[in-house]
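Notes to self after the call with IL:
- keep both proteins in one doc
- input above output, always
- annotate only the second one for now

Protein 1:
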Amino acid sequence: MSEQGAFINSVKISDDFDLEKLRISGQCFRIKLLPDGAYRFIKGGHVLDMKMSGKGTYDVSCRDEEFADIWHDYFDLDRNYRAIRRRIDPSDTYLRAAAESGKGIRILKQDPWECLISFIISQRKNIPAITAAVESVCRSAGLEIGGTGEYEFPRAARMRTFSDEQWKAFKLGYREKYIRRAVADAPDMESLAGLSDEELMDSLTAMYGVGIKVASCTALFAYSRVDLAPVDVWIKRVFDEQYGGEDVLSGRKDAGILQQYLFYHARVSG
């Protein structure tokens, strides 16, 4: 039993899927490991507790309809990650090792607004600090989700009502001005979903304080643009140390997924 309530259903997932690797993959800052070993995911006004119960079988705290409507796409379950790993050139031994290390990571399709603001917050912060900042915003201004003790990430309209004192309490530092401007100028994030990759990146980087890295993360983790690969200090180090400085992901099919393997492997292998 999870803290949200009894597991009421089970699902089967035959492809690569690892709850702990998803939690520490750096793409989402609100995944929680509960005391009973279950993992908690939040998307919009929905909370899911999930725990492995057997090989490829998971207990979940929602019925089939909700899993199909919300969580199937969230976990990108229509994409065959095993096939993507198999297509990696055997001669690229580092990427092959990274894919094996990161096997089970999937690209989570997150709420676009929450994803954008979370990655603006993430600039020059470590993952625990990002997690604390995002949680602070949610608990201070988000709506509680059905008595679960979890809170929605506040919409832009709600964030526009924050006082200067509320903003300061979040301790966002220099990022505060970028987020406040994003809140003031917030586009309809859902309307961006129909844009091409190039148009989406142009729209995101046109926002004040949103550079290529934040835009790439938002495009990948909120809009499932898996051919786009964010390049941070970890990935740049991999390029420099393993590929002579060459960006081996640029223009590559499924580059965003391969980037996640490289990011995870670089962090866990030191």
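Protein 2 (the one to annotate):
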Amino acid sequence: MGDMGPLCCIFDLILPERCVLCARPLLGCRAGSFPVCRYCCNTLHPLEGARCALCGTVLLSEREVCLDCRERTHRFTLHRSAFAYDERTAELLRAFKAEGTRSLGQLFGLALLQLYRQHCTGALLVPVPGHPAATRRRGWDQAHELCLSMSRLAGVEVNRALRRGRSRRQKELTFAERQTNLRGRIRVAANPHTLGCRSVALVDDVYTTGATLDACCEALQAAGVAEVFAFTVAMDL
């Protein structure tokens, strides 16, 4: 085939890859190996301000723990999201999952890795299993891809310890319906000896009610996991 370098450069000039968010050609302004320009990356700000000590939502008038966490018991030690689920983050996640732009996993992985290092360095990374139908259709699992990105960046150990059975899609369900929908549907598929007495960091794309994370925690804790932390790319506030 010969050296394709010069030919690739010509194609880059004629049909340059564009930023997922602003459609600006990425020549000279790429923020990383993912298709987002430096200017748009600078507009992605992490969630800041007073946060619930448990679920990580932004506190308004509450102190330490939000009203939601006072009324229901989550099974994780804490949850943190990198970003709010706003228009820009939603567009990035759509490109990642629906359009198959898997390189965006590196952008998300960098943000998730910061949270991981702040709260539970050394914990085993476990992806939240996606809906089986969606995973088959896409050909890959988004949470596992996020874990792989974190592992490539920092050598963190990943274990696909959980499996999810057939169930309704969670998106349009209430919190109570989500709990019922997932009851008994998530199980530990790994050897319990690889999990017992360890701390686990669950990873997923979006936090809505926490029902999916709670179902994962229940399965992991039944297998002897000592403590479960949870991290997501975005939180639907």
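Annotation: Residues 15-43 form one domain. The first helix runs from residue 5 to 14.
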